[in-house]
Amino acid sequence: MNLFEKEQWIQEAAERYENQPPEALIELAVEKFPNITLACSFGAEDVVLVDMLQKLSPKSDIFYLDTNVHFKETYETRDKMQQHYGLEFVQVLPKLTLVEQATQFGDELWKTSPNQCCNIRKVDPLTDILKNYDAWITGIRRDQAPTRANSKKVEYDTKFGLVKFNPLAGWTSEDVWNYIRSNNVLYNPLHDNNYPSIGCTHCTRQVAAGEDPRAGRWADSEKTECGLHK
Hints:
Elements: H1 3-16, H2 22-32, E1 36-39, H3 44-56, E2 61-65, H4 72-85, E3 90-92, H5 98-105, H6 109-112, H7 114-130, E4 135-137, E5 154-157, E6 162-165, H8 173-182
Parallel strand pairs: 1-2, 1-4, 2-3, 4-6
Antiparallel strand pairs: 5-6
Helix pairs in contact: 3-8
């Protein structure tokens, strides 16, 4: 399949699966692209996708970007999920340790240059891991942020050069939590403590009543995305 044929297939699949359940799209994704991976941040959306993928294609790879500065609850959720599903998440680490990063760029780079910090600890490692695959699955939803409002169920990811599936693009937060409760899915306990969106410890805070669900991410800067999604 050349690029033109791939883009035509993507457009047709996005239209055909727009109103289909996420499981139907995941089934299509793993059938069409056996060399596929799921990106997991251990947030609510991603634990739903892990559960769905384990039921449909338990041998498909699932990776996480280990920035070395996740909350302990996030690492505990990872460990519990590995035990529950009998799987091993693929750990993707930055090239620089936190000490090496501080030596080269100064202490607390997440404060002085959050974009550079995200590039080092997230975007560059993601670029490296995605080179090994033909497609990836993400947990982005259109109503999470204005930058995601136009996300399609199937896209060609020009940033990383592969096909991107967003099975939950049309879901609301309520849909996500209904699935979690109905299927007894393990989830990060920080969600029960006013953390609707969970990132690294230094750049994530609790969200007050009435605030946007992503207000706790990079709260002291104008940054709204880590750069993983165009």
